[in-house]
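Deliverable D5.2: sample structural annotation.
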Amino acid sequence: ECERASLSIIDGYKHDGNAVRKDMSMDTSEARFCGSQLYYTEEGMKSYLSSGNRLLVRLNTKDRPSSSVIGQRVGFKLIWTAVEGLFDELNPSTALSSSEQHRRTHQFDTCTQFTCQGGQICVEQ
């Protein structure tokens, strides 16, 4: 399936021709999705968490949809959300007191717009 159509998510500042600006990090990673959604059996297989605030999303196709699928939705569905506070929570050197953890837990119970604080990943409905 990947030969016919794939969706690539490139994390960082990688561009066409692999040229990278000198002032940007050379560290990039890439995720590739293709085929039927049935292939991705676990929720984590359908998602990608970037390491920064910049992504390049590329849809690669070789074929046009066949006449049998005209009028039907064909392709990929992309949902994104911003995440704040995730890296602080993963860093053991920034341990919080139990009262501060309790305050933050209740402060981040809601998801406003696409911003989810406290490391939660959610999508506005």
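Annotation notes: The beta strands are 5-11, 29-33, 55-61, 82-84, 115-117. The CA atoms of residues 113 and 124 lie 6 Å apart.
The annotation will be released with the project's public dataset once the embargo ends.
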